[in-house]
Amino acid sequence: MGEEAHRSVQELAASLGALPPEFVRPEHEQPAATTFPGGAALDVPVIDLSEPGYGARVAAAARDWGLFQVVNHGVPSPVVAELQRVGREFFALPREEKERYAMDPASGRIEGYGTKLQKDLEGKKTWNDFFFHVVAPPAKVDHGVWPRSPPEYREANEAYCRHMQRVARELLGHLSLGLGLEEGAMAEAFGGGDLVFLQKINLYPPCPQPELTLGVAPHTDMRVAGSTRCTFLCRVEYSSCL
């Protein structure tokens, strides 16, 4: 494999004064075209999970929009901060250490450390590095691909996942009721205790021309190969300059 295949966006960002052409998105995908400059932004539903009766609003937002944002979800700020901390510490490791956990899609290994220096179908690249792995259920988890440095990585991920499982159960319960089903119907249909949770920690290094590129391009989230059950993809996203 060539040198570029091993080089991360993080390393590339440290040596650039201008954005390489392969990172420049088509004009309609550039950030200036997607942030509603000079006009009103779309009023995407925001659901406050601490308010009484929020379940009905969850069902309505799913029916009318197909997506919504939740706030006051009960995930403690220290849990989120710790997950971000271990993620930053991992990305600060030397390249050789990070590559011990590199994903290898050619061999079927989709979990681990990766970068978006690979081109998409339009010949473009996105501005991020990431770490991706299954966090639940235990039977699907391979701790062999999880970083051993920092040593708190596993504890931080598992603590965050427990809260994500709780939030997912609550939302699936309200969606079930909104469909006129028993509260546990959707969770059971999607696998019950075998519901798969995927964790993706994205790193967005400082960019010399952020108005021209994207950290995540338009996409459809994946599902676990060979599975007909529901998969939850939990993302933790932050800039390396924080």
TrEMBL record:
The keyword Cell membrane does not apply. SUPFAM superfamilies: Clavaminate synthase-like (SSF51197). Keywords: Iron, Metal-binding, Oxidoreductase. InterPro entries: DIOX_N (IPR026992), IPNS-like_sf (IPR027443), Plant_2OG-oxidoreductases (IPR050295). Pfam families: DIOX_N. Residues 44-140 form the Non-haem dioxygenase N-terminal domain. One of its GO terms (molecular function) is oxidoreductase activity. This is Non-haem dioxygenase N-terminal domain-containing protein. It comes from Panicum virgatum.
